[in-house]
Write a structure and sequence with these properties.
This protein is about 45% helix and about 20% strand. With about 290 residues, it is an alpha/beta fold.
C-alpha cells in the first residue's frame, strides 16, 4: 500500500467518478483504475461498486475511508516536517469526538493551546464512538473526547472533564420549560425525540427504552445524531432527551433536568503510554475551559 494508491482512492471517493479523479490527480483514467484494483487486491476487499452510470463506495470502502484519510494526512505532515529544516517543526494533535456539539466545546481549548504553540496543527475527527476508539488504538488519534462507560478501552486512561445531567430539550414556549425538573409522568404526555440507540451510551439507551414503554410509535422520533434531535425539538416536533453538555448555548432551546436520570461523565481518553507534554497540556486546558463554558 502506498500513498499514491490512497490518494487515488480518496479522489474517486470524493468525486464518485474515475474520470474526474484522474483529472484531479493529473493522470490517465486507466492509471487510476489500476491503482484502485491493486489496492483492492492488497486489502482483499472491494472498495467501489461500478456501473456504466454510477460509482459508489461499498460498505468496505466506507469503512476504509477514515483510515485512508488518516494515513494520507500523516504522510503529508511527515513530508512537511522536513520540507524546510529552518522552519519550526509542526506539533500535530489529533482529536476525535462523536458529535459536532462536543467538538465545538473544544474550540476554546484549542485556541488557548495554539497561543502557546504557534506551530500547533490540530486534526479533528467526528466519527461514531466505536470508530474513534479504533483510531485511538492504532494511534491515528491522540485524544478522544467522549463519555466514560464502564472500563476504559484497553491501554487507555480516562481524564474526567465534566459530569453532565440528562435534560429534556424543548422550546421556551413549551409548558415543560417552566418546570424545575421533568419526570416520566410529564413526558408521557409529550412526543419524544431520541438518538438512535447505536449512537448513544448503553445507559442512555436503556433510559430511552424505559420511556418508550407503552407509547405509540407515532409519538417517538429516532434521530441519527444529537444535532438532528435538537433540530426537531426546535421545530416543535417533541421533547429531545439529551445530555446537558450537548445542548447548544443560545440555540433557542431550554434544557429541563430529567428527574432520576444518571449523570454522564465526559472526558478525554488517551493511550496510556502517549500522555506526552502536549497531550497533558490540552487535558489541563480543556478541564478549565469546559468548567467555564458549560
Amino acid at each position: 500500500m502506498n500513498t499514491f494508491q490512497l490518494q487515488c482512492f480518496l479522489a474517486v471517493a470524493d468525486y464518485l467518478s474515475f474520470a474526474k479523479a484522474a483529472e484531479q490527480m493529473n493522470v490517465s483514467q486507466p492509471a487510476v483504475t489500476h491503482q484502485i484494483k491493486s489496492l483492492e487486491a492488497e486489502l482483499n476487499a472491494k472498495l467501489f461498486h461500478r456501473s456504466t452510470r454510477m460509482v459508489e463506495l461499498t460498505p468496505d470502502g466506507q469503512a476504509f475511508l477514515p483510515d485512508a484519510r488518516s494515513i494520507v494526512a500523516l504522510s503529508e505532515q511527515a513530508r512537511l516536517r522536513f520540507a524546510d529544516s529552518e522552519e519550526r517543526p509542526i506539533l500535530p494533535l489529533a482529536i476525535g469526538c462523536s458529535s459536532y456539539n462536543l467538538l465545538n466545546l473544544l474550540q476554546g481549548s484549542i485556541a488557548e493551546l495554539e497561543q502557546r504553540h504557534r506551530n500547533l496543527h490540530p486534526r479533528l475527527w467526528v466519527e461514531p464512538r466505536e470508530r474513534l476508539f479504533h483510531l485511538l488504538d492504532i494511534e491515528a488519534l491522540e485524544l478522544v473526547f467522549d463519555i466514560r462507560e464502564g472500563d476504559s478501552p484497553r491501554d487507555c486512561v480516562f481524564r474526567p472533564l465534566y459530569s453532565s445531567r440528562l435534560v429534556c430539550a424543548c422550546r421556551p414556549d413549551d409548558p415543560l420549560a417552566q418546570l424545575a425538573s421533568v419526570g416520566a409522568e410529564e413526558l408521557s404526555r409529550e412526543k419524544l425525540i431520541f438518538c438512535n440507540p447505536i449512537n448513544v451510551s448503553d445507559e442512555v439507551s436503556r433510559l430511552q427504552w424505559r420511556l418508550t414503554e407503552g407509547r405509540s410509535p407515532a409519538d417517538i422520533h429516532f434521530c441519527a445524531s444529537v444535532e438532528a434531535a435538537e433540530v426537531l425539538a426546535g421545530a416543535g416536533c417533541g421533547v429531545a432527551v439529551v445530555p446537558e453538555i450537548l445542548l447548544p448555548r443560545g440555540g433557542g432551546l431550554v434544557g429541563v433536568p430529567l428527574g432520576g436520570a444518571p449523570a454522564l461523565d465526559y472526558g478525554l481518553f488517551c493511550k496510556r503510554d502517549a500522555e506526552n507534554g502536549l497531550v497533558r497540556q490540552f487535558i489541563q486546558t480543556a478541564k478549565k475551559q469546559l468548567a467555564d463554558a458549560v
